[in-house]
Amino acid sequence: MNISNLFELYSEALLSGNRNQARNIIRKAIASAIKPQEIYRQILFPAMEKVENMYRANEISILIRNLATRINRFITDQVQAQLIPADSSGKTAVIICAQAETEELGAQMCCDLLEADGWNCYFLGGGVPDDEITAFLGQVTPDILVIYGSLPSGVPLTRQLIERIHDIGSCPFMNIIVTGGIFNRVEGLWEEIKADFYATDPVNVVDIAKNMNPKLHLPRNPSEPKRRRRLASGPIAAIN
User: Fold this and answer.
1) What is the CATH classification number for the domain harbouring 41?
2) In the chain, what is the greatest distance between 2 CA atoms, to the nearest angstrom?
3) How many beta carbons lie within 10 A of that of residue 66, not counting itself?
4) CA neighbor of 146 nearest in space, from 171, 114, 172, 117
5) Which of 21, 40, 103, 120 satisfies CB 3.0 to 4.6 Å to 97 for a cystine?
């Protein structure tokens, strides 16, 4: 059975709330010598997005969404144990996300896969105040900050956080990668909020982090006035 068929069966198991069936499908994938990274890329992450998209389209209830998301998280924890960690890369990543459970699961997947690729990771989750995030970044000076997802209403706050990080300048060599959630639904939004890179999924986060040419961010000269922010006419203005 190919991986696309396993994805369909796995999605059905999630939506029916059948945890045992979902677990057995993933066991079958592992027994078929499918790499854990491919299980993340072609089953776990797409299933998470399918559930969220169905919920946003009012095709499933919040009960089914929560049930499916929790099963998927349970299975993700099991697949994470199958990841064979690479030697340490000497690089550090900080991962943050929106507060919704789906966003936290996606961010967890990013953390799992980066750790397996040899990164030292700090997973902060959601709901952390900006001043605490920027202070922490200054302490650990990571190579990348991964921001997973956001609610539409949170996009301006994400942009403010990025601007604050750049203005402070404590991590001039740190690059910001955004992925998931609203960033996957609104083309070009990552550029509008001044992120450095956009990744389509958690596996792509690792690919970008491994192969990127870092961008240098020098702090703004305090004597220079801040540029007036133009009125949004692009992706931010189009968000509902």
Assistant:
1) 1.10.1240.10
2) 64
3) 14
4) 114
5) 103
**Structure confidence by residue, pLDDT tens digits, 14-51:** 999 999 999 999 999 999 999 999 999 999 999 999 99
Which tens digits make up the pLDDT trace of 176-186? Answer: 999 998 999 89
Do 114 and 198 lie in a common domain?
Answer: yes
Say if residues 113 and 202 touch (Cβ distance below 8 Å).
yes
40 and 128 part of one domain:
no
Instruction: Name the H helices within the chain.
Output: 3-16, 19-31, 36-39, 45-56, 62-80, 101-116, 130-140, 155-168, 182-185, 189-192, 202-211, 235-238
- Give me the number of domains the chain comprises: 2
Report the CATH number that the domain containing residue 119 is assigned in CATH. 3.40.50.280
* Number of alpha carbons in the 13 Å side-chain half-sphere of residue 237: 5
pLDDT digits over 129-188, tens only?
Answer: 999 999 999 999 999 999 998 778 889 999 999 999 999 988 999 999 999 989 998 999
Q: Is residue 234 part of a domain?
A: no
Residue 16 structural domain = 3-80
How many angstroms separate the CA atoms of 178 and 185, rounded?
12
- Kindly report the pTM of this predicted structure: 0.86
Buried b (16+ CB within 10 A) or exposed e, 123-141: bbbbeeeeeebbeebeeee
21 and 118 assigned to the same domain: no
Whether residues 109 and 190 share a domain: the answer is: yes
Q: Residue 170 in contact with residue 138, Cβ under 8 Å?
A: yes
| Token pair of 17 as six digits | 């709330």
Do both 131 and 155 map to the same domain? yes
